[in-house]
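During the second half of the funding period, the structural biology subgroup turned its attention to how the target accommodates small molecules. The most pressing case was magnesium ion, which had performed well in the primary screen but for which no bound structure existed. We therefore specified the complex as follows and requested a full 3D prediction, including the ligand pose.
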Amino acid sequence: MSNHSNETVRKIIHLDMDAFYASVEIKDNPALIGQPVVVGGSPQSRAVVSAASYKAREYGIRSAMPCSKARQLCPQAIFVLPRFNRYKEISEQIHQVFRQYTDMIEPLSLDEAWLDVTQNHINCPSATWVAQKIKADIKKQTGLTSSAGVSYNKFLAKIASDEKKPDGLFVITPENAQEFLMNINVSKIPGVGKVTQKKLFLLGIEKGEQLYEKREDYLKKHFGKFGGYLYQMIRGIDERAVISDRETKSIGIENTFKEDYQYGETLKQELKSLLNGLFKRLKKSQKLGKTMGLKVKFQDFHQITRSITLANSLLTEEVISKLAFQKLFEIAEYEYPGKKIRLLGISISNFEKEDENAAKNQQLDIFYFLERGEI
Ligand SMILES: [Mg+2]
């Protein structure tokens, strides 16, 4: 037992695809293998580099650099226009892999996500092993490499994934975290961009050790709220939860019955009470969705899900009830006649847009900006 014995130590993976856009372009066009590939606009334009292959990086080409500069650094570089729809497709494949292991997935971008694997679908106690499996599955599914960081919070997992790129895996344990943090360059801390880095440098802070020595009020005086963040991070303290996209994107309820039921009055009664529970949750969330999903698990543990999406209107309680009873009837009478049912679940998703904004606003604290660039 470690000194964290009072609480369960979380197991967080940060997974980051290697040179994602460039790697997808190379995968789709083998003529680009081994070439300095730059995804971005034309070098004649004012566009900046979206991604650079590892070969291109050997010439000093980096993301966010003007494409004209990239051309100067490497005249033979091959410039490719980004194809975001293609990257989204591959990103979806990657998320399918994630979902085999956990539902607690918080995407940061198309090619990066945090996964909470404290509890996971394969009941594996080793997050490192899960990370290895995920990396291998992604490689198998997409042909692409990724890097994983494994630790007990989001901040450390994120720094860890950057440690052994490309195709890396790095673990920071509660036991070695502080030593690791003492030796990092402060520019490694997410949110510390060029401006903050310079400011820290002028205060004599370059290494983690030097940041660690500063008092909290000193850091707050110079960096405001961000100073408080720095103080916590350099101590390896980060309580932020992994907020799964699913959690905010669907509301659902399910129930495993005391005994298995054939279709009939009892089962209908169970569905009715399930619907009442669902309506309470929907009211509380003040959300209205367009998609209803009905999950049915049979006596033999075979499980199916059927969903219905309304094209142009939102699901009211009345419509949800009607659809749920109708679907259950179809499944029980026509699709799987006579099969006993042990679990029913209903979920609503595809919420109207304003709710997405509301969810975002809740996150509009400092961390929201942090993950998206410089402060
Ligand atoms: Mg990446």
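Two results from this model are relevant to the next phase. Confidence is low (pLDDT under 50) at residues 1-6, 354-375. Residues 194 and 372 are 14 Å apart (CA to CA).
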